[in-house]
Structure to design on (238 residues):
């Protein structure tokens, strides 16, 4: 049987395949229980407060371990509804998600790189405001929990329950990898989990105000992100 004890060394393909074969039959709660058992206290949950998957995972994880670490990236360009949801979560669950901020304020970034870096060089903007803070959030961690699902976009069709994150050098756990948008909403409604109010206004996936638009019927759930450009990911996952 494969030893699932985490180490900060990249596992070989066989090890990952064996882990995923084991976890493929688990539900999200079982997978979270496994992750908490195997990786705590060096485990953290990413929740953007801008997507329904993150809210489901937060609710499930806090029920299993109320002390689980939760973080979010405060880019300085989040929607007011996103900040409001974070405050609601603090009160409901009695937790304090930790924000991670870019080194530069929006004004400092504008002075150094121009007033609309998200238009002139969106990859650089994401690198400054999301990827670098995310790296800081994962320092000292052996694994992180993310809300990636196969149905979210064409770039995520091959998501597995567990990945080795080459960018941040740790395991990435995807408990909702094979869930659908419908399944997520069924859970949210059944458990009365708070969610971002902008989801009811055509925003299935929320990032920064400058780069997020409503999604048209029939489009990918993330089609409103970086609308009008070829960019499809912020750089955290791909």
């Amino acid at each position: 049987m494969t030893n699932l004890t985490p180490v900060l060394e990249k596992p070989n393909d066989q090890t990952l395949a064996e882990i995923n074969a084991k976890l493929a039959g688990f539900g999200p709660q079982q997978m979270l229980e496994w992750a908490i058992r195997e990786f705590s206290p060096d485990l953290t949950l990413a929740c953007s407060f801008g997507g329904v998957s993150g809210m489901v995972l937060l609710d499930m994880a806090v029920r299993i371990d109320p002390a689980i670490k939760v973080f979010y990236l405060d880019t300085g360009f989040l929607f007011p509804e996103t900040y409001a949801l974070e405050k609601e979560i603090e009160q409901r669950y009695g937790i304090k998600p930790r924000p991670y901020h870019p080194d530069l304020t929006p004004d400092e970034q504008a002075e150094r790189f121009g007033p609309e870096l998200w238009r002139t060089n969106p990859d650089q903007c994401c690198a400054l405001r999301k990827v670098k803070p995310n790296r800081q959030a994962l320092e000292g961690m052996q694994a992180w929990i993310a809300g990636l699902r196969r149905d979210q976009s064409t770039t995520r069709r091959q998501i597995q329950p567990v990945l080795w994150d080459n960018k941040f050098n740790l395991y990435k756990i995807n408990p909702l990898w094979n869930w659908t948008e419908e399944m997520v909403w069924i859970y949210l409604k059944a458990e009365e989990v708070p969610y971002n109010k902008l989801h009811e206004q055509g925003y299935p996936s929320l990032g920064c105000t400058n780069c997020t638009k409503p999604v048209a019927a029939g489009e990918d759930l993330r089609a409103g992100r970086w609308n009008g450009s070829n960019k499809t990911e912020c750089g955290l996952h791909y």
Q: What stands out?
A: The first strand starts at residue 43 and ends at 46.
